[in-house]
Amino acid sequence: MAGIAIGAFIAVNFFQNPNEVQVAEATRQALSEYGIQDYTRMLPADLFNWDNLFTWKGFIFFIVGGFLVGFGTRYAGGCTSGHSIMGLSTLQWPSLVATICFMVGGFVSTNLLMPFIFQWVK
Amino acid sequence: MRHTDAMCTNESELQHPWWHNFKYLAVGIIFGITFVKAEVISWFRIQEMFRLHAFHMYGVIGTAVVVGAISVWLIKYFKLRTLYGEPVHFEDKKFDKGVIYGGLIFGIGWAITGACPGPLFAQIGGGFSVVAVTLLSAIAGTWTYGALRDRLPH
């Protein structure tokens, strides 16, 4: 875990990509409606910053989001690496079910919930 | 014995000096660099994936599955052992309804945070220290699951 953080630190600071993240135009357009403009780093700095921590924005994107990731991962008995990558590569059908549910959850969250969330926390 | 089931422990019975853990650190560092260079930890990339606007993440995950399948095949074919000579077991995943409920819950969180558990660490190392709050909340989520497990439908 510490290794992953150190590796990411090395990559960001020493093998830096000077360009903006290449995000599909359609996604940029959709996100601009939510006030997300900053594509200089891996995450939108206009959303993921300490100033947002004690706002509803921070509550949803850090506290609620993180809680769902932790709770859901344990409940499902694995995450993207455990189920989707290791599970699928060993042809385990429960992992296929899990992966489909991950994707359904993500599609619902992005396309149905997020418009409401952003309208609310703006 | 090592278990892959999340309900169980994953502890080695072997005792090692603490500096043996550095090999995990090395793998973690390589993993972290890969996460950043492949932009897997990018919230934008996750947004693209769930809006079906780009192939990027599907390509990354698809490639990982193929590489994983080849690796597992090689481990089984050559009966490879761990660095300490232990045989490698692949245990079958058990199905219960938790896979569905938990999977949906995780998916919702994945789209919001732009990260699954591993990339959370990489987002912190990648300069977004506020994600440490997300990580703490995720850990609280795992504890909550542990406390409620017997009362949840499985």
Walkthrough of the structure:
- Chain A has helices at residues 2-14, 25-32, 56-76, 80-89, 93-121.
- Chain A is mostly helical and 122 residues long.
- In chain A, α3 runs antiparallel to α5 and α4 packs antiparallel against α5 (93-121).
- The model of chain A has no long low-confidence stretch (mean pLDDT 93).
- With 154 residues, chain B is mainly alpha-helical.
- Chain B has a domain at 18-54 and 92-151.
- Chain B has helices at residues 22-37, 43-50, 56-77, 97-113, 117-125, 131-148.
- Chain B starts with 21 loop residues before the first helix and ends in a 6-residue tail after the last helix.
Largest interface pair: A-B, 86 and 94 residues
Quaternary structure annotation:
heterodimer
Note the total helix count of chain B.
6
Number of helices of chain A: 5
- Helix share of residues of chain A? 55-70%
Question: End-to-end distance of chain A, in Å?
Answer: 33 Å
Q: Sheet with the most strands of chain A?
A: none
CA-based shape of chain A: globular
Q: Got a strand count of chain A?
A: 0
Q: What's the pLDDT, averaged over the residues of chain A?
A: 93
- Integer-rounded radius of gyration of chain A: 17 Å
What is the percent of helical residues of chain B? 55-70%
* Poorly predicted segments of chain B: 1-6
Total domains of chain A, how many? Answer: 2
